[in-house]
């Protein structure tokens, strides 16, 4: 039998080194599925419960392996389901190719069943590249370009293939007019910075006396250079959420997370600095950066379309983080006065003590900070951690001390609920020899995490290291939003929208043959982690956490709240009291009544 377009497509994916495709079946891709059967499941087809989960799994896989993520879905509803996961890839700059079916060419435009205008549907999410293959000769150029564009622009792209085209005999583009042949592979440059710009940046940084650095995921792989620059400049380093695993939290001058989910030392450093150096981050919240007339600033970023925003930077240096920092280092003068950095280190040390104290405070029944605090020192050196959107993102950002080879991520820019569990699955499929820990709210579990545990049931026995731990913050509440409403809108909890039905998460896990551990006492938290971290299969930790422990720190809401919180904390009030008794209620006293 001749090779079909679908056979050729799978063969080309294999040639590109794609070993896994996350997907879900449907008659819009029947030709592809049949080819998969003929190809002996190469690349491996991983079946999710829902196409959105397949897309999240592809994003998680790509984030943790550094390779291309690929997902596949049928036409119409399957393609529509992919969207949220693809937007997650778009906003967090992750290379993912979506392969989707379409109705037969003879039916397109005929209001046919499951016919959706897919080119229009994907136009925004796959704005870097989306195309429909209508004849076999088109396939190589479209597929190869989709892959190269996704990798090069760090973005999702989409290839649409009508069902009948999948089953056509493949015929390659020829050496003729109106043919577009293609080739395999791509090598990217390491973008070297402009010499003059490096000199101007060094002049700004050398002139400062109190330097703050902010690093994001663009600084991944440049940890040694970041540390060297920070040392020369006597700087502290704050980390944007997606850059949490870029630099070890054991370094005494790393102030940790910044922003709404951030730490106090990061906030204080930004409020007190006279110079800012941002590397590989487009952290969005300007109000957590220095005031406009307070600091001179330099930004380093590989993407000219994202540089120069958020702050009036004096030098916007486009370049690879490692190459640019290496070029800067010989031009930087070591600050002889180390007092600024010593102050930051003292703040950081005090911060970790405060976190430990807060985690030890009694709650009803389990303080969520205790859950994270007990895990932190137990984290295996090669652990991968993901967190869902919700209160767990806050505790993930602030409470976990990353070190060594640890990796972690979440849906940073889209901040979508429901990514935690499928990210964890994508991590396990991509890195089956590493332990993976997922934090998810009960709302996120009910949204889709529970169903996706069925995917875990299907695949876990293939993993070299079977440990996948899903810690559920069981607070019967959409807690993050409940607190946002309290703190930002001054509104009480609206039970109809915020309360969740009670579900037995541990019991559901057990029913799937996984380990389920229900925890409702603080004293049992440590043993539960030990159990899960030595288990021979995936575990769901179903932990009754207290919804009255506010995830939002007092310095993290509106500008007025910053100054209010600062005033309170400067008076050496017990930070915990401020938080525990309800940041919102306390801070409300400082807020003028809102109008409109
Ligand atoms: C898809 C999606 N829907 C809604 C939201 C808004 N949202 C953000 S966090 C959150 C609550 C999450 O509740 P849960 O998963 O129970 O976690 P908790 O905050 O209670 O720990 C909501 C509704 C969102 N970010 N994404
Ligand atoms: Mg909840």
Cα distance spanning the termini:
70 Å
Radius of gyration computed on alpha carbons: 25 Å
Overall pLDDT confidence: 93
What compounds sit in this structure? thiamine diphosphate, magnesium ion
Helices, by number, come to 23
Which overall shape is indicated by the principal axes computed on the Cα atoms?
A: globular
Low-confidence blocks of residues: 556-568, 570-578, 580-596
Strand order of the largest sheet: 2-1-3-4-6-5
Which structural class do you get from the secondary structure elements?
alpha/beta
Tell me about this structure:
The protein has 596 residues and is of the alpha/beta class. It is built from 23 helices and 18 strands. The strands form three sheets. Strands 2-1-3-4-6-5 form a six-stranded parallel β-sheet, with helices on both faces. A six-stranded parallel β-sheet has the order 9-8-7-10-11-12, sandwiched between helices. Strands 14-13-15-16-18-17 form a six-stranded parallel β-sheet, sandwiched between helices. Helix 3 packs parallel to helix 4 and helix 13 packs across helix 14. The radius of gyration is 25 Å and the shape is globular.
């Amino acid at each position: 039998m001749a090779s079909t377009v679908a056979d050729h497509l799978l063969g080309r994916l294999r040639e590109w080194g794609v070993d896994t495709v996350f997907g879900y079946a449907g008659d819009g891709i029947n030709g592809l599925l049949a080819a998969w059967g003929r190809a002996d499941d190469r690349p491996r087809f991983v079946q999710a419960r829902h196409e959105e989960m397949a897309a999240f799994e592809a994003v998680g896989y790509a984030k943790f392996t550094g390779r291309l993520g690929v997902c596949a879905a049928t036409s119409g509803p399957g393609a529509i389901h992919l969207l949220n996961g693809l937007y997650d890839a778009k906003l967090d700059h992750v290379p993912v190719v979506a392969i989707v079916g379409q109705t037969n060419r003879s039916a397109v435009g005929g209001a046919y069943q499951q016919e959706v205008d897919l080119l229009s549907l994907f136009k925004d999410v796959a704005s870097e590249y989306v195309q429909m293959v209508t004849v076999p000769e088109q396939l190589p150029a479209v597929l190869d370009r989709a892959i190269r564009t996704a990798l090069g622009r760090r973005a999702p792209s989409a290839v649409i293939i009508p069902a009948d085209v999948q089953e056509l005999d493949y015929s390659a583009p020829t050496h003729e007019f109106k043919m577009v042949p293609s080739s395999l592979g791509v090598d990217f440059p390491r973008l070297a910075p402009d010499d003059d710009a490096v000199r101007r940046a060094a002049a700004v940084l050398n002139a400062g006396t109190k330097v703050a650095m902010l690093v994001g995921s663009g600084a991944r792989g440049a940890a040694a250079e970041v540390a060297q620059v920070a040392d020369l400049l006597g700087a502290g380093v704050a980390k944007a959420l997606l850059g949490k695993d870029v630099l070890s939290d054991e370094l005494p001058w790393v102030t940790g997370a910044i922003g709404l989910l951030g730490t106090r030392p990061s906030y204080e450093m930004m409020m007190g600095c006279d110079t800012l150096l941002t590397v590989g981050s487009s952290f969005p919240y300007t109000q957590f950066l220095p005031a406009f007339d307070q600091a001179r600033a330099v930004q380093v970023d590989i993407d000219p379309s994202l540089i120069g925003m958020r702050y009036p930077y004096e030098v916007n240096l486009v370049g690879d983080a490692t190459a640019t920092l290496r070029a800067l280092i010989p031009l930087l003068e070591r600050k002889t006065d180390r007092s600024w950095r010593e102050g930051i280190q003292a703040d950081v040390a005090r911060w970790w003590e405060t976190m430990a104290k807060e985690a030890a405070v009694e709650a009803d029944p389990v303080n969520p900070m205790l859950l994270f605090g007990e895990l932190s020192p137990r984290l295996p050196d090669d652990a991968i951690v993901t967190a869902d959107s919700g209160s767990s993102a806050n505790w993930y950002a602030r409470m976990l001390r990353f070190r060594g080879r640890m990796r972690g991520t979440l849906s940073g820019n889209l901040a979508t609920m429901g990514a935690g569990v499928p990210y964890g699955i994508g991590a396990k499929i991509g890195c089956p020899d590493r332990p993976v820990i997922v934090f998810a709210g009960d709302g996120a579990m009910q949204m889709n995490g529970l169903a996706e545990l069925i995917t875990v049931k299907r695949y876990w026995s293939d993993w070299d290291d079977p440990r996948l731990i899903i810690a559920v913050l069981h607070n019967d509440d959409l807690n993050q939003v409940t607190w946002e409403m309290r703190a930002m809108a001054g509104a009480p909890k609206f039970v109809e929208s915020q309360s969740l039905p009670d579900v037995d998460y541990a019991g559901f896990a057990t029913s799937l043959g996984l380990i389920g551990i229900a925890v409702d006492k603080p004293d049992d938290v440590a043993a539960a982690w030990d159990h899960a971290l030595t288990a021979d299969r995936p575990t769901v930790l179903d932990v009754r956490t207290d919804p009255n422990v506010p995830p939002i720190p007092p310095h993290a809401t509106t500008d007025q709240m910053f100054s209010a919180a600062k005033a309170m904390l400067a008076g050496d009030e017990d930070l915990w009291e401020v938080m525990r008794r309800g940041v919102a209620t306390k801070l409300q006293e400082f807020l003028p009544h809102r109008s409109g």
